[in-house]
Specification:
two-stranded antiparallel ribbon; 9 helices; about 55% helix; alpha+beta; single chain; Glutaredoxin; about 210 residues
């Protein structure tokens, strides 16, 4: 079973969706053999490198009041905790550009360490409050994921894989993916959003049975 997980590293519901999907796959066990591929999606492709204050960003983009934002953050924190992930909302004060992160993830896929890097980047941003577009953060995350840090630095400084990431982004946008996470199974089944574990498990079992 091929699973394409379309997401951004500054999307909290992508963390929740990935954790729930992975737990569903664990529950299913050997009944389903899955290959997980992370595909790029930028929530804010025009975001400057220095980022933007998160409250200002949410108010401008979604019209969210501070109270609404606080309720949403608490819901995200609780969902994350139930799935074993720590959201530190007090450390996450800005939204950042993520194109460099997606370039590094593309390289990590070639090296067979994409999933490990994805988890390291989620932790860097949502738990540690760091800028996932900054080279020093990305290089350290690469090391945590078992990748060669000097090669990671070379990838970032060279602009490598920019064309490939842009091409993949366009591909999924043209498929109609405009919100993430989007989980595409065997190129034809779509599960949208940070669904509960049970939803992913049920869908995976049904698709496997049909196959």
């Amino acid at each position: 079973m091929k699973i394409d997980f379309v997401s951004d590293v500054v999307c909290p519901w992508c963390v929740i969706g990935l954790r729930a999907l992975e737990e569903a796959l664990t529950r299913i066990g050997d009944d389903v053999k899955a290959e997980l591929h992370f595909q790029p999606f930028e929530l804010n492709p025009q975001m400057p490198p220095e980022g933007q204050d998160i409250s200002d960003h949410l108010a401008a983009k979604y019209g969210a009041t501070p109270e609404q934002g606080e309720r949403t953050r608490e819901a995200i924190r609780a969902r994350g905790e139930a799935l074993g992930f720590t959201f530190r909302m007090d450390r996450r004060s800005r939204i950042y550009n993520t194109f460099n992160a997606h370039r590094l993830l593309h390289w990590a896929a070639i090296e067979g360490r994409q999933s490990a890097l994805k988890h390291a980047l989620f932790k860097a941003y949502f738990t540690d409050g760091e800028n996932p577009g900054a080279h020093e953060v990305l290089v350290r995350a690469a090391g945590e994921a078992g990748l060669d840090t000097e090669r990671a630095r070379q990838v970032l400084e060279s602009g490598a894989y920019a064309a490939e990431v842009r091409e993949h982004e366009r591909f999924y946008q043209e498929l109609g993916i405009h919100a993430v996470p989007a989980v595409i199974i065997d190129d034809r089944h779509l599960i949208q959003g940070g669904q509960p574990v049970e939803v992913f498990e049920r869908a995976l079992r049904q698709i496997a049975a049909q196959s």
